[in-house]
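Chain A, query sequence.
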Amino acid sequence: MTSVHQNFQQVERALGQVLLGKEAEIQLALACLLADGHLLIEDVPGTGKTTLALALGQALGLSHQRVQFTVDVLPSDITGSSIYRPDQQVFEFQPGPVFSEILLADEINRAMPKTQSALLEAMEEGKVSQDGKTYTLPVPFFVIATQNPSTHSGTYALPESQRDRFLMSLTLGYPDERSEQDLLRRGVGRHAIPTSESVFNRDQLAVARAEVAGITASDSLIQYCLRLIRFSRTCGYFDLGLSPRAGLGLLSASRAWAWLQGRDYVIPEDVQAVFVPVAGHRLLVRQALTGQAHKSVLDCLTEVDVVK
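Chain A, predicted structure.
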């Protein structure tokens, strides 16, 4: 276990003091960050989505901004725009909130599709183009996007190709009874996020990501991932199976999960721990199976042998 890994455990503990009873979800969010992906959270209001983003930025010493998406938010409100300076007779680019290291895109499915696409294009390219010039986004650049359940009014569902840009999708959900009792007693929440010095920094995060990328994945482990991917395409549960990008994401997330557990190699249990968060929002359940999405995704794990 490296010193960077030991320091990173302090980040987990710091987040656990703010988001009570959500240890598994915190680890998955951190795995998503370590794997250089972006996170989609579908949940009802008030379950800690904003708190997670703010606490993560504070613990890692990263800049963070929040955008509340509504139907009248324009692409330039996200990426930035050029403003004319009459005294200099030039246009000057004013960066938008996308130029932050952690961006909370709140209720992304309330924005018009054109605005959604502007953000997702920036996520994919890592840069923004304006007036013939290209502006590079900061590194790291981690988007935590939240969306309301599809049953809520005034939402514009993300197309399949755009959902595929997110490495993971989570649901925080309500806390268990004991955690909620502690929450009410202690009054923890967004105001309880410590404002003191961060317990980690961007240089250490770069080292951690490099260590994650170097985690060993054996040929047999890769074959297991491949069987899961091919099963999703041929089992008949889904209209569309997992894409090659999803396969790469599954392996990256598995490496990150293994690193969080203190190992320098991936085992099948790592793949199984991240499979539903990586695959759940990508797999389109056939109409006859609507309402059984979660069960169908889990069936991939139960029906595919670890060893062939």
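Residues 65 and 103 are 5 Å apart (CA to CA). The chain has twelve helices and nine strands.
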